[in-house]
Amino acid sequence: MLTTLQAQERAQALIERARKAGADAADAVYIADASESVSVRLGRLEDVERSESEHIGLRVFVGRRSASIGSSDLSDDALAELAARALAMAQGAPEDPYAGLAPEELLFKGPFPDLDLIDGGEPSPQELRALAEEAEDAARAIAGVTNSEGAGASSGGAVMALATSHGFAGAYAATSRSISASVVAGEGGSMQRDYAHRMARHREDLIPPAEIGRQAGERAVARLNPGRMKSGPAPMVLDPRVGGSLVGHLLGAMSGASIARRSSFLIGRLEEQLFDSAVRIVDDPLRLRGFRSRPFDGEGLQTAPRDVVRDGRITGWLMECASARQLGLAPTGHAGRGGGGAPGVSPGNLHLEAGSASVAELIADIEDGVYVTELIGHGVNGVTGDYSRGASGYRILGGQIAGPVAEFTVAGNLIDMFRAMTPANDLEWYRTINVPTIRVDGMTIAGD
């Protein structure tokens, strides 16, 4: 895997080839990653895997015509052919009045901030195996656990570089460390499985493997012998493991491309009070050691923290340059980039600010409701906001979490759900979208 400087130089060299081939403008993105993982099952080594990949993507412009192409072959001959093919494709493409690089005056000139994304010490395969074994041993030690689907530990690193023909060049690197465990409780047809998983940029930010195993084992045992929910209206409480999906649906609807296509349930609601006035959702791409931290976006614009929701209202759309031009607005530094194609929208590290009530206080007045720990399926309509997903979790009776329940559906509309949303005070920071426990009143439950 190349260093950040080498990656940046490789992207710049491809831009030069594209310009020599006749492109009016171009940008190139280089992405590489390498990872090593070790998995164990029932106390025995099951797999050791090493993977490495690198990819370079080129986007060229001929007037208002553009084309994108990518390759994992980074030899000189392959890159020369890549530039020539991209130019030929662009010359035959339709004109797009909104296509183009980011405005030159908005490019981030640096210096780039140090976001502490790199863990200097890379664990050996033996160390990874020891972490996985410790997690599985702790999970299997929980009374009621009868089998294991395995535990694993991994270590990885990635490099991303972006260069444009009008003056931007930058690169950054990041590492990742993770531990997971998945086990089975019960016997025969009554078996239940659950898992626990943690990931961090630095190994020291992970919780102990034994704690991950304990969580996996206790969660699996707690799901044994689930009951059924009765159908009807009821309050729903979302565990933080799944509550972040609500924020994800909001972000998808706030995408400039969705607004420009008029395919978002937020059309016409920019000034509307969507949440309780105490609700605040923050996007922070500069959070130290964050999973989505980055000094610049996929078009070379500076990133910065921003309130996505403040005082219960959304603060505007999240836009890359093409949708910003179409909407007559300014880009927001949220352009995301994969190995090829035009930029999309990608937020930074997000969190829903904690509320004032504990989880116990949040559910204290619920006579009959449900605490959801797993959501199944993709029954969310991004145009209308209609929401319907399979779920499992625990019943809430008399203000207390009771026994497990499964095979039911929760349904509503996201606009109504946002208005009825109340966060607890148990926010933790170890996901890409961090939320506390969330209560949503007025859901429709379909069970027995």
Helix run count: 9
What is the element string, with H for helices and E for strands?
A: HEEEHHEEEHEHHEEEHEEEHEEEHEEE
Helix content: 10-25%
Strand order within the widest beta sheet: 3-2-1-4-5-6
Domain Metalloprotease TldD/E N-terminal: 26-90
Pfam families: PmbA_TldD_1st, PmbA_TldD_2nd, PmbA_TldD_3rd
Protein name: PmbA protein
GO molecular function, one term: metallopeptidase activity
Description:
By secondary structure, the chain is α+β, with helices and mostly antiparallel strands. The protein folds into 2 domains: 4-221, PmbA/TldD fold, CATH 3.30.2290; 226-448, no CATH class. Helices cover 23% and strands 37% of the residues. It has 9 helices and 19 strands. It has helices spanning 4-21, 76-91, 125-140, 209-222, 240-254, 256-260, 321-327, 359-363, 414-419; strands at 25-41, 44-62, 65-71, 145-164, 169-185, 192-200, 232-238, 281-284, 306-310, 313-314, 335-336, 344-345, 349-352, 368-376, 386-397, 400-413, 421-423, 433-434, 438-446. 43% of the residues are buried. InterPro entries: Metalloprtase-TldD/E_C, Metalloprtase-TldD/E_cen_dom, Metalloprtase-TldD/E_N, PmbA, TldD/PmbA_N, TldD/PmbA_sf. It holds the Pfam family PmbA_TldD_1st. One of its GO terms (biological process) is proteolysis. Belongs to the peptidase U62 family.
Core attributes:
448 residues, five-stranded mixed barrel, metallopeptidase activity, alpha+beta, PmbA/TldD fold, 19 strands, six-stranded antiparallel sheet
